[in-house]
């Protein structure tokens, strides 16, 4: 990741995994108020994922449709357990772009790429398995095309 990007991105992010609900759906009005407060406080980093039910639609309504794209940073995650190939990884990213209508993602994170023990326990793809699947070639190819993509591999601390 470029040093300039790292310095310009505020260190607090708005995670969209668990959002307030109204009935059976997400309370988009409440999420919109939360987004506004977050931005007013000077923070700009939002984090969603293909597997966060309803979050991509909610962030489209609460942020993307209401704010200029250059005013925020948006990350998504590639869910490793659903991504055994470059083709399925690309499909996840394309679906996320369609749902958010953000135009692009500033960051793509690898989500739930556990170690061998985690894979046995949870049925998830390991980082070794993900890398062996050639899905990272998708990221490398898109980065070579110059879309400004920043890729971060992360694993949640135990």
Automatic annotation (TrEMBL):
Coiled coil: none annotated. InterPro entries: AKR2_Oxidoreductase, NAD(P)_OxRdtase_dom_sf, NADP_OxRdtase_dom. Residues 11-117 form the NADP-dependent oxidoreductase domain. This is Aldo/keto reductase.
